[in-house]
Design brief:
Length: 260
């Protein structure tokens, strides 16, 4: 038998490519018509100039003028600073305070006393010196009185000075002067003690008092080796130099008698 020819498959029809849909823009919404108020709007009112803004009136009516210019008052001049105390007075005060701390009340009293004699116008420093001088003298009064008379105490003070016991020598000499200020030997011994300690200020003060009581101490001080450290000081020479004797003018001649 003859074979039948195979049937050909019908060719598939190609589908056409889909056409691009045109993009639709959203339609603009139509503005709603404004509601009519029944009043006609004039074109002049639309283009009218703005009204000026009214400024508030000044309080109290008319504006007051500013006050006239016044120059500021200059400040007062600064107060003058107080004059500082003398260096020697400060050094003497510090020595007296050192004696107070050491309970050497006789030495402290002597130092403060000579400070007040030489610098009486030091103001605050002199006031403090008076306070501590009173304290030292009060402490000395609490101690028992030195035994013996004036001559015995002066002898004991000289012996203590030779033994370098300056505290005891000062105590005895001060006790003599507190009883009799005309004892020049006590002042002379205190001058020697102060010179040995290097306290030229007190040494000159005590020596000046000894010479004022007895001028013969002037010559003795110039010849005493104890006062060699003071020899270069002008004040030492002023104290120990005898003043020039005043020469009295000659008397006027007697009037001549007229002959008869």
């Amino acid at each position: 038998m003859a074979k039948r020819p195979a049937k050909k498959a019908p060719a598939k029809a190609k589908r056409p490519a889909p056409k691009a849909k045109p993009s639709k823009a959203p339609a603009a919404k139509s503005a709603k018509p404004a509601k009519s108020t029944g009043k006609a709007v004039s074109t002049k009112a639309k283009h009218a100039a703005p009204k000026p803004i009214a400024r508030p009136a000044a309080r109290g009516g008319a504006r007051t003028p500013p006050p006239p210019y016044q120059r500021p008052t200059p400040p007062p001049p600064p107060l003058a600073l107080p004059k500082p105390p003398a260096t020697e007075a400060v050094a003497a005060f510090e020595r007296g305070m050192a004696d107070i701390q050491k309970k050497n009340y006789s030495g402290a009293a002597s130092t403060f006393r000579s400070l007040l004699e030489r610098f009486p116008s030091e103001g605050f420093l002199a006031d403090r010196a008076r306070v501590y001088l009173e304290l030292a003298e009060r402490e000395l009064r609490k101690r028992p009185a030195a035994s013996g008379g004036i001559e015995e105490r002066l002898t004991a003070a000289t012996a203590a000075l030779n033994n370098n016991d300056y505290a005891e020598a000062t105590r005895l000499a001060d006790s003599v002067l507190s009883e009799d200020a005309s004892q020049d030997l006590a002042s002379y011994l205190l001058a020697v003690i102060a010179t040995r300690k290097g306290d030229h200020f007190d040494a000159l003060a005590h020596l000046k008092h000894a010479i004022a009581v007895n001028p013969e101490n002037r010559v003795q001080a110039r010849q005493d080796e104890e006062f060699d450290p003071l020899f270069e000081l002008d004040e030492f020479h002023d104290i120990t130099t005898a003043p020039a004797p005043s020469v009295a003018p000659p008397p006027p001649p007697a009037p001549k008698r007229k002959g008869r």
